[in-house]
Amino acid sequence: MKDKIINFLELTGFTWFVPLVKLATGESPTQQLRDLAKMVGIPLLAIVIFLGLWHVGAAKVITSLGQVPGPVQVWEQAGNLVDEHYIEREKEKKFYERQDIRNAKKLEKNPDAKIKVRPYTGRETYFDQILTSLWTVFVGFVIASLVAIPVGIISGLSNTLYSALNPLIQVFKPISPLAWLPIVTMVVSAVYVSADPMFSKAFVTSAITVTLCSLWPTLINTAVGVSSIDRDLINVGRVLRLNYLTTVFKIVIPSSIPMIFTGLRISLGIGWMVLIAAEMLAQNPGLGKFVWDEFQNGSSNSLSRIMVAVLTIGILGFLLDRVMLTMQKFFSYDKNAVIR
Amino acid sequence: MGMVFPVSTHNYELRYWLAAGGIHPGYYAPLKGDVSGKIDADALLSVTPPPQMPSTMEAGTIYGYCVGEPWNQQAVFKGIGVPVITDYEIWKNNPEKVFGVSQSWADENPNTHIAVVKALIRAAEWLDANNNGNRPEAVKILSQSNYVGADYDVIANSMTGTFEYEKGDKRDVPDFNTFFRHHATYPYYSDAIWYLSQMRRWGQIAEPKSDEWFMDMAKKVYRPDIYAIAAKELISEGKLDATDFPDFATETGFKPAQTEFIDNITFDGTKPNAYLEQFPIGLKGQDVVK
Question: In this complex, is the C-beta atom of B160 within 8 Å of any C-beta atom belonging to chain A?
């Protein structure tokens, strides 16, 4: 049981909880406390010093929107955002209650009356915006991976294809998402026309921009990973006369998984950064739009709220990276390799 | 200087004020492809998004701007600028905002159209009710971050019957925002024709047009008939009184000749071309931008 928990913690990268588990089972407490001090104490001390410096430094800079917010103001605004979320949910509940009462009265008077159930059109709360951002980056990232991994595998295996694609990849790789955005917006507006679309245009634009910017690391890393697998393994495939698809699925993919996942991790990181910029301009209702709207509002607590969003973006990026790391460790065949 | 948009009320008010002071604000020449509005200009006007106007002025990119609230009070609050004049002083009781819909939407949703107009009339009446008594609550709603989002005090400065011309110089201007008083919600044709005349004055309407053309344009876009339907429904529902509205049977849609302009030029909505002849600066008669 204890070993299972320790294995899980090491798999997910939360290694600093391991000494706590060992302490709980009474395994050499002094050693665990020393480990704890090293793994947890030192980072905590660094964070506390950072907060202190932030608090002191922020008070010194006065912008036209007021003083730069310190940790205290940011914490207050985070609380405000949570409160606003609950207030909005209350409003939504009351709206549906009022609608139900109205519809019930209508049916009482005339049992055949057509009643309408309208969805609530209130504002999105902060948590809705977080979910929208995560969903958009997920969609963009999945599309990017579905394109990049097959293309990467084929160009890794075939030298001709690689030299054909390489110049295109190198030219498109450094293009910033903000440069793609106007083109993507125009193309989506022209092509994605329908009376009742499932996804809003802003969502499609943001997701496609994420795709265009995050497929390059996966593509390149997959190609490099595939082209650097052990020649012996390919030869085994030839000896056994395996057909192309079997070679790919049984030999190529399993041995290049580490490189593919490295690419995926970098892609997700880049995709998350790109998403915030794309959302600001495409007005997809996520964290990017939240930051942009707060900036446009210019109220005295706008800067603090933007800071809350900045920290949220950082923490979410960290968590996304952790998820990818866990998946990478899970899929890797070489359990002894150190993957950070 | 900054303004909101080439066809915004702010653009025309800013140009009117500059021209009244003898400064040429520039012509448009859309037929020649020049829509920057800077031909022959003494003062260059450009488009700036309202929320960015205080910071753009602070940065020195523009020397001034014409915009709606709260961006003027925002500049006063931050000590980066002062409002030198309000449009109440340029043209007393001028029209500012309209509710516009596309013809296709109006055709597809006639009942919703009337319902929305009724809601707007009721909201306007509430805003002016009890001698501006409901304004503090209105300011609280507007200061929410999903609406205007500026601070309560900044918005309250112009919505609750005062206006701060400079830090410490707060004057009583009870009609600074009028929503319902003086029949403010009624779509007068003369309002539309004033804006059309200014568009002609600055070249956005590039060719000379007859007085009938101005009237026809106004009648196509301003719809007092829809307003009357909504108002009559409200009166029969008992929510508002017939005295709150102009007399629909006799109203022509043209206000009597208006004289309260900053340069004392009289505006008669029935004679737009004669009105344009009175201005020293601006296109008139058969003029075309060269």
Answer: no
Lowest mean pLDDT among A136-145, A287-296, B143-152: B143-152
Residue A327 shares a structural domain with residue A294: yes
CATH class of B2-277: alpha beta
- A239 is a domain residue: yes
Q: Which own/partner pairs from B54-63 qualify as long-range (CB within 8 Å, at least 24 positions apart)?
A: B54/A64, B54/A298, B54/B78, B54/B80, B54/B81, B55/A64, B56/B2, B57/B2, B57/B81, B58/A64, B62/B1, B62/B2, B63/B1
What Cα–Cα distance (Å) separates residue A60 from each residue in A46, A69, A70, B227?
22, 10, 10, 56
Measure CB to CB from residue B150 to each of A123, A293, A297 and give the nearest one: A297
Q: Is the domain of A45 the same as that of A190?
A: no
Q: Is residue A272 domain-shared with residue A140, that is, in the same domain?
A: yes
Do residue A197 and residue A259 come from a single domain? Answer: yes
Q: Which residue has the tokens 């709603």?
A: B141
Residues of B with CB below 8 A from A88's CB?
none
* Residue in this structure with the two tokens 């009890």, named with its chain if needed: B130
Q: A47: domain range?
A: 2-60
A295 contacts on B by Cβ (under 8 Å): 51
**B148 at interface of A, judged by CB pairs closer than 8 A:** yes
Model confidence pLDDT, tens digit, residues B156-215: 888 888 888 888 888 888 788 889 988 889 999 999 999 999 999 999 998 899 999 999
Query: What residue spans define the domains of chain B?
Result: 2-277
Q: Give the predicted TM-score (pTM) of the model.
A: 0.78
Q: Do A302 and B143 touch (CB under 8 A)?
A: no
| pLDDT tens digit sequence for A145-170 | 999 999 999 998 888 999 999 999 99
> Could B54 and A64 be called an inter-chain contact, meaning their C-beta atoms sit closer than 8 Å?
yes
Task: Among A80, A109, A138, give the residue marking a domain's end.
Answer: A109
- In chain A, what residues touch B55 (CB-CB under 8 Å)? 64
Neighbours of B240 (CB within 10 A): 18
Chain A CB within 8 Å of residue B134 CB: no
* Residue B24 buriedness (CB in 10 A; 0-12 / 13-18 / 19+): middle
- Same domain membership, residue A91 and residue A34: no
Handedness of CA B218, B219, B222, B227 (dihedral sign): positive
Angle, vertex CA A153, rays to CA A147 and CA A159, nearest 5: 120
Is the same domain home to A84 and A164? no
Q: For A150, what's the count of Cα atoms within 13 Å in the CB-facing half-sphere?
A: 6
Q: Determine how many CB atoms are found less than 10 A away from the CB of residue B27.
A: 23
Q: What is the CATH number of the domain that holds A186?
A: 1.10.3720.10
Give CA–CA dist B13/B20, Å, rounded: 10
Contact call for residues A162 and A156 (beta carbons, < 8 A): yes
* A49 is a domain residue: yes
How many separate domains does chain A show? 3
Joined together, the tokens standing for residue A49 give: 């010093």
ipTM of the complex model: 0.70
